[in-house]
Amino acid sequence: MKKLALFVVLAALFIAVIPAHAQDAGLTLSMSRDFGYAGFGSDIEGLFSLRASGPSNLQRVEFYVDSELIGNVDEEPFRVQFTTKDYAPGERTMYALGYLSDGSQLRSNEITRIFLSAEQARGKMVELVFPILGVVLAVTLLATVVPAMLSSKKPQRGKYGVSGGAVCPKCGLPYPLRFFSFNMGAKKFDRCPHCGKWSLVRRASKEDLAAAEARWAALDAPTEATPRISRRDQQIDDSRYEN
After folding, report:
1. Which tens digits make up the pLDDT trace of 190-236?
2. Which helix (H) or strand (E) covers residue 17, if one does?
3. CB under 8 A, 24+ apart: contacts of 120-123
4. At 95, phi and psi to the nearest 5?
5. Strands 111-115 and 43-53
6. In this predicted model, what pLDDT tens digit does every residue of 101-133 receive, in sequence order?
7. Which of 64, 78, 97, 152 is the most exposed place for a label (fewest CB within 10 A)?
8. The CATH number fitting domain 24-120, selected from 2.60.40.10, 1.20.1250.20, 3.40.50.800, 2.60.120.260
9. How confident is the model over 158-187, as pLDDT tens digits?
10. Which stretches of the chain are assigned E, i.e. beta strand?
11. Can you tell me the distance from the alpha carbon of 96 to that of 51, in angstroms, rounded to the nearest whole number?
12. Which pTM was predicted?
């Protein structure tokens, strides 16, 4: 009796599972872009494809945009193309009806999208591209301009480039103004490559640059207190520490 009862329970469970699997074998609708715009939201514009997949005995599929039949396919792949320019801009719902060999009908899931005009799609693309370009520009500035402004490489005396030269108000030495310096009205906020300090500076005149170059030359010139030592005398002095 116990074995018979167990058999009856298993049989009932098996019979209950069959319709559950049959119900799961539905019709699935998917959409892909062939050419055009498809933003992060539900906005689309251009040429797209609808595809349907279902049970092995699926024989025919009808594709709809709203209530309008746009395609009737009776063999795999069950696919149709459509273009949004054939419709007025606005929200549209797409779905499919599938017909099986036993005469039964299946309805697919629905896909809702907002069809845009070509002008609307261009506006959306501009809104999408400009922030990306801003990020790229910011990264470029951080990667190239900022390191160049913070560089400690000493400039060459008398060479200033197209932006002209400035005189540091901190150390009094001249240096070329960088093209990417921060504009602050009539002055620029720039870093002196000699002393490394930031200051508001303006493009200096030739006279001011010449006076600053003279101060720079005086700093580089040897003094009597620190006489130059020849290479031969330096080698003789260093030999005293050799074994």
Report:
1. 888 888 889 899 898 889 988 988 888 888 776 555 455 556 665 55
2. helix 2-24
3. 120/43, 120/45, 120/89, 121/36, 121/37, 121/43, 121/45, 121/46
4. -155, 175
5. parallel
6. 999 999 999 999 999 998 988 877 676 666 676
7. 152
8. 2.60.40.10
9. 888 788 889 999 899 998 988 767 777 778
10. 28-38, 43-53, 58-65, 68-73, 78-83, 90-100, 105-107, 111-115, 165-167, 174-176, 182-184, 187-191, 198-201
11. 9
12. 0.48
Q: State the Cα angle at 195 between 194 and 198, rounded to 5°.
A: 110
The answer to whether the CB of 162 falls within 8 A of the CB of 179 is: yes
Contact 28, 53 (CB under 8 A): yes
Contact 154, 168 (CB under 8 A): no
Helices (H), ranges, 57-171: 118-140, 146-149
CATH 2.60.40.10 domain position(s) in the chain: 24-120
Structure tokens belonging to residue 95: 């779905």
Q: What's the farthest any 2 CA atoms get from each other in the chain?
A: 122
Buried b (16+ CB within 10 A) or exposed e, 131-142: eeeeeeeeeeee
Q: Where are the alpha helices (DSSP H) in 141-178?
A: 146-149
- 165 forms beta bridges with 176
| C-alpha dihedral sign at 156, 157, 159, 163 | positive
Residue closest to 114 by CA, chosen among 48, 38, 34, 51: 38
Residue 219's φ and ψ, nearest 5 degrees, are -70, -35
